[in-house]
Write a structure and sequence with these properties.
Belongs to the purine/pyrimidine phosphoribosyltransferase family. PyrR subfamily. It is globular, with a radius of gyration of 16 Å. With 173 residues, the protein is an alpha/beta fold. The chain has a single domain, classed as Rossmann fold (3-Layer(aba) Sandwich). It has a 5-stranded parallel sheet with strand order 3-2-4-5-6.
């Protein structure tokens, strides 16, 4: 197994800044905007994007964490019906945020999770890396970088909040 560095911490920071500017350009008013980070790294990226937007616009953007565990289609569903996002997303403009987009199944699960409880006015999608190989007709509105991969390659996003370093690697298995 070998790996190659795609982004170092500086390139990662620049990419997040660019995504923030694209979000601001596409959303003239961000007063109704909520960032929904898909657990785990998507949530931390959402926090970084919210902080950067606040630095740029001096407006605080709310962030929620979306745990898709009970909505994944590759594991047995739990009978735990008490799961709920603890934020009212009714009529909000939501930007789902994840680190890597692959088949689209994670994004579908996150949308199912939100739509089970709320009717937002719209949902957009931001991803740090789009590696292709989609299995569902889902595309991101904001993409940090498109990195077409082979099926044997994997994209690994490391964030200091989880992994003690910021970088993006491509791993050949």
């Amino acid at each position: 197994m070998s790996s190659k560095l795609l982004f170092d911490n500086i390139a990662l920071s620049r990419t997040i800044t660019r995504i923030c500017h694209e979000i601001l350009e596409k959303n003239k008013s961000i007063n109704n905007l909520v960032l929904a980070g898909i657990k785990t790294r998507g949530y931390f990226l959402a926090l970084r994007i919210a902080k950067k937007i606040e630095e740029i616009e001096e407006i605080k953007v709310d962030v929620v964490e979306v745990d898709i565990t009970n909505y994944r289609d590759d594991i047995q569903k739990s009978n735990n019906s008490s799961f709920k996002i603890n934020y009212n997303l009714e009529n909000k403009d939501i930007i789902l945020i994840d680190d890597v987009m692959y088949t689209g199944r994670t994004v579908r699960a996150a949308m199912d999770c939100i739509l089970d409880f709320y009717r937002p006015s719209r949902i957009m999608l931001a991803v740090l890396v789009d590696r292709g190989h989609r299995e569902l007709p889902i595309r991101a509105d904001f993409v940090g970088k498109n990195i077409p991969t082979s099926i044997n390659e994997k994209i690994k996003v490391n964030l200091t909040e989880v992994d003690d370093e910021d970088c993006v690697l491509i791993i050949n298995s």
